[in-house]
Amino acid sequence: AIDRQSAAAIVFGGSRGIGAAIAQQLADDGFAVALTYLGNADKAEAVSNSIRTGGGRAIAVRADSRDPAEVRHAVEAASRELGPLDVVVVNAGALRIAPLRTFPREDFDLLVDINIRGVFLAIQASMQVLRDGGRIITIGSNGAVRAGSPEGGVYAMTKAAVASLVQSLALELAPRGITVNNVQPGPIETDMTAGMIAGLVNRIPLRRIGKPCEIAALVSYLASSDAGYMTGANLTIDGGMVL
Ligand code: NDP
């Protein structure tokens, strides 16, 4: 069981949106939190300052998820400053949409690099220092379950890759008591989706867009010792959109 009062978590992509909400929630749960970011140092510092102001421990580390050396450096900094890791949340992601016929190859490469290769790099670097009994939580998408739009195919493909990976990784890490689960949000109000998702409300049975804190609440549960029997699961949280 994880003793949250002396436990440490790393959130890849914790400066904005869902990742920032997760970092704040895990800090509220008692975890010391390291969060990574790409370009928004000010926002990353604001999240870690807010955690420290609330009496928690937090550091922000710049690490491009696509760069193995930067990812390794972030994991080393986290475990050096906060202690051995108990929870790894891989949230950093990117979205590009276009019909396949015209989908730019550089956008394809970007999505694969961040949403697939970046997830692999973050997990591979972290699992060396993750404590037995720990948690790996990825942020996928409900797009992995069912096509949401004719233009979201490449993004959905990358998130389906993550949904697949957690199942094998759960098997690999089960002997160490480490659980591996993938959270699959539907439309959530963040910078990534600004101006894009209001029109989806009519396709959501609960008739509203989700909030980052609602995704963070599920991550909080998965990070807790109460969730110790759940592993290899793909958990869709989307107001019923893919039903
Ligand atoms: P945002 O665009 O609002 O935030 C993205 C976060 O990831 C930022 O902290 C950003 O850092 C970081 N990031 C992006 N690229 C990199 C990189 N190469 N290296 C390191 N950090 C990076 O996204 P959301 O909060 O909306 O999404 C978070 C996750 O949830 C993503 O994986 C997304 O695919 C997934 N998701 C989102 C949904 C939504 O409706 N919002 C729905 C389903 C899934 P910085 O601030 O420095 O740029």
Structural account:
The N and C termini lie far apart (34 Å). The radius of gyration is 17 Å and the shape is globular. It has a single domain (4-237), classed as Rossmann fold (3-Layer(aba) Sandwich), CATH 3.40.50.720. It has a seven-stranded parallel β-sheet, with helices on both faces. The chain has six helices and seven strands. It is α/β, with parallel strands linked by helices and 243 residues long. Bound molecules: NADPH dihydro-nicotinamide-adenine-dinucleotide phosphate (NDP). NADPH dihydro-nicotinamide-adenine-dinucleotide phosphate is lined by residues 13-19, 36-40, 43, 64-66, 91-95, 114, 118, 139, 141, 185, 187-188, 190-193.
Count up the domains. 1
| CA-CA gap between termini | 34 Å
Structural class: alpha/beta
Low-confidence stretches: none
The outline comes out as globular
Ligand inventory reads:
NADPH dihydro-nicotinamide-adenine-dinucleotide phosphate
CATH architecture: 3-Layer(aba) Sandwich
> What's the number of helices?
6
State the helical fraction.
Answer: 25-40%
Mean pLDDT across all amino acids = 97
- How many β strands by DSSP? 7
